Amino acid sequence: MKRDIGNYEADFQWLNNEIEVEAFHDNYYYAETLSMSLDDLKEMINGKYLAWTFEEKEYSHVLYLDDAAKNFLKRLLEDKH
After folding, report:
1. Domain count of the fold of the chain
2. Which of 45, 51, 52, 77 is deepest in the core (most CB within 10 A)?
């Protein structure tokens, strides 16, 4: 994962399970966990960006797949059909 644009410090980590997620959240004032469905992932494979804000609308976030990831996942989906 890389950060393309941002005005603040970020802490990206890959976590292995719910226990690690809870421990990660314990380090911060506000915690949020997002889940993606297969339909969500398909939207991203088709080039869409996922954008969201926190309730206070102070911070915005956008997640997308780079071209290599989109192409790889498209090939996987084609092989399944």
Report:
1. 1
2. 45
